[in-house]
Each structure stands twice: as C-alpha cells, then as structure tokens.
Design brief:
monooxygenase activity, iron, four-stranded mixed beta sheet, alpha/beta, Cytochrome p450, iron ion binding, oxidoreductase activity, acting on paired donors, with incorporation or reduction of molecular oxygen, three-stranded mixed beta sheet, binds protoporphyrin IX containing FE, 548 residues
Length: 548
C-alpha cells in the first residue's frame, strides 16, 4: 500500500515538474537554428521505469523511445547519434537540455576558449548541494569557493609533483608486483589497492586509510553516476521528502561517514605534525601553509579528501584496460621489454628512466585513448545563452565532451578502433610529436577535460601508469588463456561497467612470469619492504572485496 502511494506521488511530482519545464521553456531567438538531435527522447537507465515507459509513444516533448539508450555502455549510443546528427547535437532528458560534443575542436572552442561561460557544473539531483557545498571540489559550481579550492589543489599537486610524489607510487609498485605474482586472478583488487594506497600516502602520509577510502570512493561514484541513483535520471524525485526517499537516506549516511573519515585522517596527521613526526603529504603541506592560504581546516580536510577520492577512483580503469589491451595486442609487451632491456638491462624500469622509454609512454597514452576511463566526460554547465556556428545553445544546458567520440575521430586517430601505440611514435601519424624523450605524455590529452576545469591529477596519473604498465610488462607476459580443451577463452573488448568511471568487466587471462629471476627479484624487494614478512596482514583480498 505504502509502495503504491509512493509510486503515485512520484508520478504526480514528475508530471508537475515536466509541465512546469514545458511551460517555462524559451523559444528560439531570431536568426539562429536549434542544434540537431534526437527528438522526444529520454535517457532512462532504470530498468523498471524503462519497461514502464516503453509503452509511451515516440514524439512526446520529454518522454519518448526510452529503449533507445541501453542500460550499459551508454557512450556507444551517444556516439552513434553523433555520427547521425553531427559532432555537436542536443537532446532533452526529462526537461533538461543536454549537448553532446564529439569533436576536440568544438570542445576547445566552447569549453576552453569560451571558458568564462562554460565552466560551471550542473546540479546533481542526488547530491543537490554539489554546486554550493565546499565538500566536492570537482563538482562545485564556478564560485569563489571553487576558485579558492582549485588554487590550493594546484599548489598541493605542483609541489608534490616536483618532489616526484615522494616515490610513493614506486614503493607501492613493489607490493603490487608481489601480489600479482602470487594471485593474478584477483588483479582488480590488487590494482585498486595500489591506487588507493598510493593516494592515501599522498593525501595523509600513510597507506592505512586505503581500505575505508575505497568504500567512500565507491559510495560517491554511485551517488553521482546516472546509473547509480534514480533521481539522477528522474530529476523531480529530488523534491520528495526524506522519509519517502531511500536514496536520500543512503546519501545522508554516506556523507556522514565520509565526513567522519576525512576528519579522522586529518586529525591523525595533525597530531603527528604536532609531534614533528608527519610524513610528506597534502595534509602536511596544508598545515604548514594554512596561515598563508587562509583556508579553514574543515575546508582543507575536504580538498585533500576529494583529491584522495579522485586518485582512488580513476586510475584503476586504465590499469585494467591495459590487461585487456595486452590480451588482444600482446606484441606490445615484447616491444616494451626490448626497449627496457636496452635502457635498464635486467632491472625494472623506474620513473627516472622515463625519457628513454617512449614505448611505455606510448602504450599508456594509447590505453587511455582506446578505452577512455570517463567515456562520457564530466559535464560542464552553460551560464548564458550562446550561439555557435549559427546554432543556439540555451543557458543552463549541460555540456558533455563525449570522450569516446573525441578519441575516435579518424582524421586525428586513423584506424581508431584498433590499439596502435605507434600512432604516438611514428612520424607518419597526425598525433606524432618530437622529441620522443618528452612525447608522448598525458598533458593536454582530451581525456582530462577542457578549459578551466581540466583535471588536476595528471602528474599522478602519468607516474602511476608509467610505473605499473612498465612494471607489469617487465615482470609478466599477459595473453588470452588457452582452455584445457585447447580453445582460447574469449576476452570481450567492449564489456565495461556502467558507472561514470568505466572499467572492463572481470577478465579471465593468462599471466606468466617473464623469468624466474624476475620473480625472485620481486619477492626480495617485497620482503625488504615488508620487514621480512612475505604476506601483508592488512590485505584481505577476495572476490567480494568492494571495488571502486
Ligand atoms: C585516469 C585518471 C583520471 C582521469 C581520466 C581524470 C579525468 C578527469 C576529467 C575528465 C575531469 C573533468 C574535466 C572537465 O570538467 O573538463 C577531471 C577533473 C578533476 N580531476 Fe581528474 N582524472 C583522473 C585522475 C585524477 C587524479 C589522480 C586526481 C587527483 C589526485 C584528479 C583530480 C581532479 C580534480 C580535482 C578535478 C576537478 C577540477 C575542477 O573541477 O576544477 N583526477 N578529471
């Protein structure tokens, strides 16, 4: 009975909201055209409502052929539409305008060159204070709080990058290679522990916060993803009172837990700092500079916390896509090994070797291009009506740089569907740049966004991916598995998870050590690092471990 009342209420609120949106929408100013795009369609990701709404005929202003957008890999549908309607098109989703861009040129023209009006963030219905609360740097509106936090974030990132991230990524690599050698089937947990432990050290000087960070990271990802929470698609649901909104209760609990966690981490560093025992970290830097920056403690705690979440959340995706790429294009491991043998002899490559190892950098960059970790991009919001190439874009529109499409432009990336790191190494490709001691690198790659909102973590991504992909190629040979009946176990190239940060579904593959000498080197390094113990008590890894 209560469920029935709830459904009725949801329906009434939704209809009133849509009616309001319809009646208050603006007509086109003279002399401009509307952007092309699919008409009368709605993005609908919840299976229950999808099935319900497929009964509604096409052509209604806000609701139409809901089955158009699949529940998984939505970016493929948005990209297909870009091939039909052009590199910039518009669609309505529950009364809101969404503009999809799949050309780097157009994304730069609007999001970078017109950054003064294209740098806001849209409201996330399941996190309705995302634009105003100082708790979410990456999701803040274009406010003074955002400017202050971004400036501080930039200082923390730049100073730690100058110190080569205090070698934290290299220390954690030893552990990663050891656990991969013992238990490759659990590669997702090992890789996500690697990213969480490294960023936990960077944020708070210790890896001990990594496990809780993974839980918090996953919680926030669900909160903000279109497929993670119903109101993110059916926006009017956010007006329901908390007692009728299970998602609001979940969100409040998540936020409270996050606040306690960040506070606890911060207090631990503060206490160590007072005793003169704190290790290098963003929090330590913040405490040292707090007077100069004028940023309150509570705000500093959240800036650091958001960096930690961003670092734990994202980098696992390209690491897992590396395994996928090697299953299908294994020859690149031989090429990386041949290069590292020449430069490093038998030892594992280090960050200091990077200038001499362009093939590893090319593999890193091509993994990011081939399987973008954020395939739909992180949306911006337009603050004023605008006209581009004669097309009208209304204020308030949500602007998506569709990474999947941008990295498939055949003029820029010939043969885009194939994994071809040589496009970064050979002069006959449009993406080639010299000198090879510096290029390819990840700076300015479209995958890290545009204009004033570009990603602040590229230095970390660059170092972690170079070390992990180089280290894995040095230690192991990854291939498709041959079953006991002699056939190759298929590894699908397109089965990705559907949250905002997309990762390949768990794969079955074969991973053999390159040599026994290298296995012994890995064991020795880990033993030295872990005080002579071969196991790590802090690690409880199994299939059920929560992944981000
Ligand atoms: C493979 C890894 C990563 C990818 C693909 C990625 C991608 C992105 C993208 C697409 C944006 C939005 C850009 C825009 O709106 O135009 C972004 C923003 C951001 N990223 Fe990253 N990111 C990664 C790793 C990191 C790391 C490791 C950190 C920090 C430790 C980080 C910190 C941030 C911050 C703070 C913002 C918000 C900037 C703002 O809104 O002003 N990211 N990232």
């Amino acid at each position: 009975m209560a469920l029935f009342t709830l459904l009725k209420l949801i329906l009434v609120v939704s209809v009133l909201y849509l009616l309001f949106k319809y009646l208050t929408r603006k007509s086109l100013p003279p002399g401009v055209r509307p952007l092309p795009g699919p008409k009368g369609k709605v993005l609908f990701r919840c299976h229950f409502f999808r099935n319900l709404l497929t009964k509604i005929p096409e052509g209604l202003p806000f609701i139409g052929r809901v089955h158009d957008v699949p529940a998984d890999s939505t970016w493929l549908k948005f990209w297909e539409w870009s091939q039909e309607y052009g590199p910039i098109y518009q669609m309505e989703i529950f009364g809101s305008q969404h503009v999809w861009i799949s050309s780097e040129q157009i994304a730069n023209d609007l999001l970078s060159k017109r950054g003064a009006i294209y740098s806001d963030r849209p409201l996330i219905p399941n996190l309705p204070d995302n634009r105003t609360s100082g708790d979410y740097l990456a999701l803040l509106g274009r406010t003074d709080t955002w400017r202050r936090q971004r400036k501080l974030g930039h200082q923390l990132m730049a100073r730690s990058a100058q110190a080569d991230l205090y070698s934290y990524p290299a220390v954690e690599l030893k552990r990663l290679l050891y656990f991969m050698s013992k238990d490759p089937a659990n590669y997702i947990a090992h890789m996500e522990e690697y990213t969480s432990r490294t960023i936990s050290r960077l944020a708070w000087g210790s890896e001990e916060h990594a496990a809780e960070l993974r839980v918090g990271t996953f919680g926030l990802l669900v909160t903000i993803s279109p497929s993670g929470a119903v109101p993110n698609v059916v926006a009017p649901l956010r007006y329901l009172p908390t007692w009728m909104s299970p998602w609001k209760k979940r969100e409040n609990a998540r936020h409270e837990r996050e606040n306690k966690f960040f506070r606890g981490c911060f207090e631990t560093v503060k206490e160590a700092h007072r005793k003169g025992e704190s290790k290098p970290s963003y929090t330590k830097m913040f405490l040292e500079e707090q007077e100069k920056s004028g940023v309150r403690e509570e705000e500093g705690q959240y800036i650091v916390g958001m960096m930690a979440i961003a670092g734990a959340l994202t980098i696992g995706s390209p690491m897992q896509s590396y395994i996928l790429a090697m299953c299908h294009y294994p020859k690149w491991q031989d090429m990386m090994r041949e290069e590292m043998q020449r430069v490093c002899g038998d030892r594992c490559p280090t960050w200091e070797d990077r200038a001499q190892l362009p093939t590893i950098r090319a593999v890193v960059k091509e993994v990011i291009r081939w399987r973008p970790p954020v395939p739909t991009g992180i949306p911006h919001c337009l603050e004023q009506d605008d006209v581009y190439d004669g097309y009208f874009i209304p204020a308030g529109a949500t602007i998506h740089a569709l990474e999947w499409g941008i990295t498939r432009d055949p003029k820029m990336y010939p043969d885009p569907e194939n994994f071809r790191p040589e496009r970064w190494l050979a002069p006959n490709f449009p993406t080639y740049r010299e000198p090879l001691t510096e290029y390819p690198n990840l700076k300015g790659h479209s995958q890290f966004g545009f204009g004033r909102r570009t990603c602040q973590g590229v230095d970390i991504v660059e170092q972690e991916l170079f070390l992990v992909m180089g280290g894995l190629a040095w230690a192991f040979d990854i291939r498709k598995k041959t079953s006991k009946w002699g056939y190759e176990v298929p590894v699908p190239t397109d089965k990705y998870t559907s949250l905002l940060i997309a990762k390949p579904e768990k794969m079955v593959f074969e991973m053999k050590p390159v040599s026994q000498d290298r296995v012994q080197m890995i064991e020795k390094e880990w033993e030295d690092l872990n005080g002579g113990r071969m196991a790590d008590e802090g690690v409880a890894m199994n299939e059920k471990t929560q992944t981000v």
